[in-house]
Write a structure and sequence with these properties.
CATH class: Alpha Beta
Order of helices and strands: HEEEEHEHHEHEEEEEHEHH
Largest sheet: 7 strands, mixed
Structural class: alpha/beta
Shape: globular
CATH topology: Metallo-beta-lactamase, Chain A
């Protein structure tokens, strides 16, 4: 009953904000967010279709495809072109997912959902932000939408499964960066072996306020602590994340280079980043 009421609230919020203007924050300090990057096969049926830094992933199945993240609003045509370059069709997208409810990962989601009719599945704690275009984001002032609202078709909770065409993704609730930040774990195969893949939403701290002063997110410190601990215990072969810079995309894959899943089997890098984030958290939490 609670899940049904929450979804009704989210759908109502979506319907109320359709006519409001979108004001996307400036990205002048991040030209790599919109810089084109040639799409490529990461491993098996998993492909990279994003920009030089805003990571977007395509999972191809016989029953349709799954698209994770879309980058900025201006990236819609780039993603479509990247998917076409790989030999696939944007129209075959059946499921849309995101790792976090921020404009730099959801900017083109509404447009892509409109042309594909794909189902938008969202971590329950980010669903309201997705549906209202960022108005309810805990770290914004709530005066303007920062991306086009997206109708939510399914609420996801920790350990829920997303299934399509023989693929099974497990969502991991990793809150802090946003209330519903999440990661995904799944298996892919190529001709030589099976790989456990993690698409991680790294828990970077976005708020400039002291944790006790974030009144719109009273559990923020506790959520960050939970996520950092949970991410330490994940088992995987390959890891990727929401931003290319986080998993060293530009160093690990040069445009035109050969298929090389081993380049992304870099657990040491992952562990170092988690430790750096823990130090950032400890410094921030020391203000409590």
């Amino acid at each position: 009953m609670k899940k049904c009421l929450l979804l009704l609230l989210i759908l109502h919020s979506y319907s109320l904000v359709q006519a409001q203007k979108v004001v996307e924050p400036s990205t002048k300090t991040h030209p790599e967010w919109s810089r084109p990057f040639p799409p490529f096969q990461i491993v098996g049926n998993l492909y990279y279709v994003g920009t030089a830094d805003l990571a977007c992933f395509l999972i191809v199945t016989p029953k349709g495809n799954i698209l994770i993240n879309t980058g900025l609003a201006s990236s819609a045509q780039l993603i479509k072109a990247n998917i076409k370059t790989l030999g696939f069709k944007l129209s075959d997208t059946k499921i849309l997912l995101t790792t976090q409810a921020h404009f730099d990962h959801l900017g083109a989601m509404a447009a892509i959902k409109k042309v594909t009719g794909a189902k938008m599945m969202v971590d329950y704690a980010d669903a309201l932000v997705v549906a209202d275009g960022g108005l309810s984001d805990y770290d914004l002032d709530g005066k303007v939408r920062v991306f086009e609202p997206v109708k939510v078709d399914r609420l996801l909770h920790n350990s829920d499964s997303i299934k399509l065409g023989g693929m099974k993704l497990t969502i991991l609730h990793h809150p802090g960066h946003t209330k519903g930040s999440c990661s995904y774990l799944f298996d892919v195969n190529d001709k030589t072996r099976k790989y456990r893949v993690l698409i991680a939403n790294m828990p970077t701290i976005v708020t400039e306020k002291k944790f006790p002063d974030v009144h719109t997110y009273p559990d923020i410190a506790k959520d960050y602590s939970y996520t950092l601990d949970a991410m330490r215990h994940l088992k995987f072969d390959i890891w990727l994340s929401s931003h290319g810079i986080q998993f060293d995309l530009l160093a690990k894959h040069r445009p035109g280079s050969a298929y090389n899943p081993a380049a992304f089997m870099d657990k040491k890098n992952y562990e170092e980043q988690i430790e750096d984030l823990q130090k950032e958290y400890d410094q921030k939490a020391g203000q409590l």
